[in-house]
């Protein structure tokens, strides 16, 4: 897959993250990473066997009502986050969203087609070494005891990069096919569960590291997904967000969105850099590192991997920026400051 190349352009890089304390050393080893993330007093699930983790079924998602103190569905445990709580009382979130990486597949159909698991796995394999290097550089140093979250994990790319570096990883997604593929990676210290990125079933401050990679442009309410990452991350913990960026030209982005939706029906909209920075700032997350990676994409290669019907390829080609085009992916690392 030589058609997709990357050239990194670093605009800013100054990481000041703090290593996590050794909080996992005394945890009950009989509990799954998911149970530990839920916290004390939360419902326990039996630790799945290796056969289960490698694809034998799907663990149930925990509801927001079960996961939040007091049992109020959608109420934020993050002090002062009135917007988050109000939006969820009105019903925004998982009921309406096309969630991360093709979640709610039945509503993401376009002519009976969704982006295949094969596409995700092919791109994941191609990007694995680069992602591992980037995670080490942007999120390090690591103590090896951190509890990490991959929200909108898809087929487990970020989880796989984090697993050798941390104590445990929890990956969440709403696409059962992607979750099964993630389990088949055989990561011994990872758990993959069905959950909505805009209503994560974890209590406040459970994770040392939280992240989502190439997720936000698939989410109808990306601000809620970022709010959830902030909520479940501990103070002095780190948050990683990476996503394809929209154009600074307000007339250009809708055109790109139409093209992306035709190529990938789970696509919602590309976010400009200012929007993502605004989401971080609204949740009191302090940006410590930012860089942009320019990627060259071979259109025909992507269409073939996504199994796009020939009649639809004609329309996609008509909207595409060109047979080989360039996209920008922004990488953001932020710290959640002390209260």
| Binned strand content | 15-25%
CATH superfamily: Vaccinia Virus protein VP39
Which structural class matches the secondary elements? alpha/beta
Secondary-structure element order, as H and E? EHHHHHEHEHEEHEHHEHHE
Q: In this structure, how is the largest beta sheet organized?
A: 8 strands, mixed
- Estimated radius of gyration: 19 Å
Summarize the structure.
The protein is of the alpha/beta class. The protein has one domain (5-335): Vaccinia Virus protein VP39 (Rossmann fold), CATH 3.40.50.150. It is built from twelve helices and eight strands.
Protein architecture, described:
By secondary structure, the chain is an alpha/beta fold. 32% of the residues lie in helices and 20% in strands. The protein has 12 helices and 8 strands. It has helices spanning 33-38, 50-53, 64-67, 82-89, 117-139, 157-162, 176-183, 222-232, 252-263, 273-282, 299-305, 310-319; strands at 5-13, 147-151, 168-173, 190-194, 207-213, 233-244, 286-298, 324-335. Strands 1-7-8-6-5-2-3-4 form an 8-stranded mixed beta sheet. The protein is globular, with a radius of gyration of 19 Å. The chain starts with a strand and ends with a strand.
